[in-house]
Design a protein that fits this description.
The complex is a heterodimer of chains A (662) and B (147). By secondary structure, chain A is an alpha+beta fold. Helices cover 65% and strands 12% of the residues of chain A. In chain B, 22% of the residues lie in helices and 28% in strands. Classes of the chains: A alpha+beta (662), B alpha/beta (147). At the A-B interface, helix 11, helix 13, strand 1, helix 14 and strand 2 of A face helix 1, strand 1, strand 2 and strand 5 of B.
Amino acid sequence: MAELGSGALIIALMLAVYGLAASLLGARRRVPELVTSAIRATWGVTLLVVTAVIALVSAFLTHDFRLAYVAGRSSRDMPTHYVLAAFYGGQEGSLLYWVMIVGILGSLALYVHRRSDRALIPYVTATILSVMALLLFILTFVASPFELLPVTPIDGAGLNPLLRDPGMMAHPPLLLAGYASFTVPFAFAMAALITGRLGAEWLRSIRRWTLVAWGVLGCGLLAGAWWAYHVLGWGGYWGWDPVENVALLPWLTSTAFLHSVIVQERRGMLKVWNLSLLLASFILSVFGTFVVRSGLLSSVHAFAVSKVGPWFLLYLAAVAIVGIGLLIYRLPALQSDRAIESMTSRESGFLLNNLLFAALAFATFWGTVFPLFSELFWSTKLTVGPPFYNQVNGPLLLVLLVLMGIGPMLAWRRTDLRLLLRNLRWPLLAGLLAAGALLLWLREPLAAVAFAVVVFTTLVTLLEYLRAIRARRRASQESYLTALAQLLRRNNRRYGGYLVHLAVLIMAVGVIASNFFQVERQYLLRPGDSGAIGPYTIVYRGLDDRRTADAEVIAARVDIYRGGELRDSVESYRYFYRNYEDQPTARMGIATIGLDDVYVVLDRWEDDGRASLRVYINPLVIWIWIGGAVYILGTLALFWPQPALARQRAGRLARGMVTSEA
Amino acid sequence: MSGTALAQPVEKSRRRWFDLRLLVAALAIAGAVGYLMYTGLQSTAASYFVTVSELKQRAAEVEGKRVRVGGDVVPGSIRIGGPGEPIHFEITDGTSRLSVVYEGVLPDIFADGRHVIVEGTFRASQPITADTLLTQCPSRFESTPGQ
């Protein structure tokens, strides 16, 4: 298996290099046969990479401990799904997974667009192949997953306990796939820049592929938040940890792109900006992949723990230089077709949205790399923690939420302010009332304002649906539900987008509540003792000793009462995995009671059953996961293919509108 | 889109490289963010990231400030105590040592020799009282070799 895998990778590398040369030569000399052969080479490379993945996965499944990678990450007693997950549990495997995703999506893109974007295709192929060639080079010569051990161990070391969690099944593959998928829009952007075909035709292709990357990355971030909440015992889901931050960055820039691309499609503006956002998203994705591996940011040791670090850094620099160079070279062709006419227009709303997203991304990036910069310039390593991000990003996010309410009500070119005010008066009134009432009830002005903003924006969004549904019903006597389904089907970009807005709003409720109203208590209890926290009483029932296939487990049982009534029982665990006995791994006990999460962490214990427990009440955290589900639905709605007829009509309509605007 | 070719005639006076109003809006946002970031860095949100020896050298400078110190746990120095009691341990960078008191949940990966980062307010000649104790794997996805 090892020979098959490493052989496949070497052949894939050679084929990728051939394809790269063929596509560039084919484009320069105008030899369509060469381009076709390069496209086929991409498919071939992908097949070979998939073969290598299959080889590695089957090495894991058959416990082939001759492979250093397999022996270091799996063991015979691990449940099968973690053995499978161990495939991407290390650097080499996750890079292999990265290439596979690039290959599959790239091949798909080349197949789908083989006729529609003929002029771009050679360069799209070349860009995709260059990314794959680099990674294949690393996988072959620097960090091969198929390296053999001199002596075959009887059993493997097993996966790091922190990674043995259901979150491992979802978070890394989604996040890595999200990172990798930015390659496709990046390839289109590079092709557009190289060929100078900067018209609107490539935008539609790019938008859809960016949507894929953005949706997958978003799901990856959510899965990561859920995982952190369940295993990292600090009662939170987002810690502004450098590794989290770098994953958020491409999501922020691509969110900005998905908004501003609308302006380019409709008004022919912001071309340079959009291309920059695409370049930034890809560069940040590579940066994210690289930082996780380098130990660059979280460690006191300054540089590159891993051998692949310099290669990534080199590649990042190359992409940045080539990308920015091309952008400057094409600057004359990227002039806006039109200028912004009024500050109260949809386009300036989008622009403001983009500036805010860019500011968010910049502040997050700055905070993340600040230790490096401060050391470079002031020779003092300064780090920033969550308070910094809360202080800087909190207000920005709040303004973005307000804008999310106002933006959709703005008209293109110029908005009649009186009309705007009339459209917004009820949500505005509701928001103000909510602010007053919440201030009296919660006595926390910031939280009251934040909730009021959510109320305002939610109402505006819901009213948008209601208006459109009413209009449909007037025209065709549909039921409300049919009308809603038709809206999402026919105009998915608008109403699917609003669905994502609603998802963000639902999540915002959870984030605001859990940030402002978390309660935390530490207890030292004997079995039978109880402690009070908020409206709840927790009763500690003692410890339990258990055994699973790969670990010994200590479980603390806790009953949760509210108003004298037993509401739920939870167990909080510490796992002692074989081979990792010095690394007891916590699994929290979380009970969702009404709107609150009661979150129990087992800290330490004695043989006589005494234990110290840390208990949190996290209000409304469940809203974040509900919002996450809505986010997935909204992304699917955005991606849902429009019916052919509607698309034709929409196309005609759009063309008609552009001419009529003239 | 074919429509771009039919772009409406824009009044020439309006068509500039940059729009002054946009510039003002962008500058306003940049200014606000800059201000927020600056104050964020001045406040307790920022802490000095030092090794144990650096901390000793710069003791006067960082007295009473928030520091973030990285070092390896000195083998045998961990006194965990019973449930509810603070954890005492020492960290070292090979040359100097620093005593740490930590009252919080025992982190998952905490053992002799592990690399940790503690965060708290520094007072000379006192053990540092950490409110944050971060334990580190060499890399997040990298397993430590099992013995």
